Amino acid sequence: MSEFLNYYLKLFIFNVDDTSYERLEEKKKSILLNLFFYMFFVALSLFVISNIYKADYQTAIFNSVSLVAGGFTFLLLKKTKDLLVPSLVFVFIIFNISTYFFLTGGSNESGIAFALMLPLPVILILGKERGIIALILFFIANALAYYFLQDQPWCPNYNYSLVCRLSIVFLFIAAMAFANEFVFEILYNRLEKLSISLKSSQQKYKDLAVNKEKFLSIISHDLSDHVGSFMAISSLLNEQYDELPKEERMKLINNMANVSKHNYKLLHDLLTWSTVQMDHIPYSPKPFKLEKIYREVIELFNPLIEEKKLLIFLKMKSNSEIYADYHMASAILRNLVSNAIKFSHPGGEIRISAQEQDDKMLITVSDTGVGMTNEALLRFNSSLSFSNPGTMQEPGTGIGLILTKEFVQKNDGQIYIESVPGEGTTVSFTLPLVD
Asked: For labelling alongside 349, which of 51, 278, 301, 399 has CA 20 to 30 A away?
């Protein structure tokens, strides 16, 4: 029996399409508004029947008109799925009914209780601020109406003691409704914070899953290939060392050294990347001039630049300070310049520029090298690992651009890449300027 009653009670109270409203507060108000409408229809219907039974046809007509107005307002709520307009109209209707009962019902009539219950739906439907304003207006309007109409024969004779008792009950119910809204608002804010926290945690778990796939992809493809190459060379030397000519042995040993260096760099990049994912790399933004990083990067890659006889053009339209982590900014530029050198043809050009754009510094590294295919651009945009040999068969780790994107995002920047196969690549990224 209890389950049967609970089922139909829930069906009655929650018989509302609250899916049209996104916020929890709107869902609550939609349910309450529907519930108050049901109670309003039941109460007004009983009043009309009682008025007709007592031959009070004037009040019966007034209540009937109010009932019809409430019905149209209810249809408006169902049609528009809008809360504010139906709420205001509904409050206006019950204001008029309460005022009518207050000015004509008398203290001995049951209708006066309807006016005393007014604060409950008003505050719960309109909210704390709007509800209090509406009740103050109601209080003032009724006080003025009674002051000017108290001499009329149909107006009840309220004495001072009765007015005080009515006001106390009215204010007590208003305080309860206000306290209910206040507590709900606190709980709602906590629930919102919890919801945001859960969404953030959910996104982090999704990112971890994606990063795990990236990590496994890098290990299974790049690292396994390089370790396999090292194993093949070492096995060949181990099995045929005496049979191989000296020049061939030195060449294989040199290849082993190069593969070892490359494996070390790949492991270092993987360690750096995994540390970034776990937020273990210290992020210490500070103001500094980009020119200093320019000089360090060019000095670092100068032997490679000279080996390929590349032309380097530096163009800075701004000497303003940027606000970022110095080591991350340096790593970003190093990776981009390294890639530009790697994929440039001997005698090619590399241009590095910087200019202000609103509150950001736009840094661009472009080359006239081999460029990137559409497939490679898609892999870059999806943060998948990929590595191609350079124009002089320089190897890569396949993770440099991934680290670059991570560092740019860590410093509240954005990165863009444009490339045409056979014509070159342009990579631009932004870093915040000092306020």
From this structure: 399
Q: Burial of 177 by CB count in 10 Å (0-12 exposed, 13-18 middle, 19+ buried)? A: buried
For the stretch 272-295, pLDDT in tens is: 666 655 555 667 888 888 888 888
Dihedral in degrees, nearest 10, Cα atoms 311, 315, 321, 324: -50
- In this structure, the number of other CB atoms found within 10 A of the CB of residue 33 comes to 20
Q: Is the pLDDT assigned to residue 408 strictly greater than 70?
A: yes
> What is the tens place of the pLDDT at every residue in 91-145?
888 888 888 877 876 544 555 666 666 777 787 778 778 888 888 888 888 888 8
Q: Which two tokens stand for residue 253?
A: 């040993």
DSSP string, 319-331: -PEEEEEHHHHHH
47 C-beta neighbours (distance < 10 Å), count:
23
DSSP string, 362-380: EEEEEE-SS---HHHHHHH
Judge whether 404 and 336 are in contact, CB under 8 Å.
yes
Residue type at 31 in one-letter notation: I
The label of the residue with tokens 């043809």 reads: 345
Rounded distance, CA 101 to CA 110, Å? 9
> How many Cβ atoms sit within 10 Å of the Cβ of residue 388?
14
H-run or E-run covering 425:
strand 424-432
Residue 352's SS3 state is strand
Rounded Cα–Cα distance for residues 78 and 86 (Å): 9
**Which residues are 432's β-sheet partners?**
360
pLDDT exceeding 70 applies to what percent of the chain?
74
What is the rounded distance in angstroms from the CA atom of residue 123 to the CA atom of residue 179? 10
- The SS3 assignment for 346 reads coil
3-class DSSP state for residue 421?
A: coil
pTM to 2 decimals? 0.45
311-316: strand order across its sheet:
311-316, 349-357, 360-367, 424-432, 415-420
Are residues 396 and 266 in contact, defined by beta-carbon separation less than 8 angstroms? no
Structural tokens at position 264: 């070390």
Alpha-carbon torsion, ordered 283, 284, 286, 289, to 10 deg:
-60
- 79 CB burial (10 A radius; 0-12, 13-18, 19+): exposed
Cβ-contact 105, 111 below 8 angstroms? yes
Distance CA 324, CA 287 (A): 7
**Distances from the Cα of 212 to the Cαs of 375, 387, 432, in angstroms?**
22, 19, 30
Supply the pLDDT for residue 68: 92
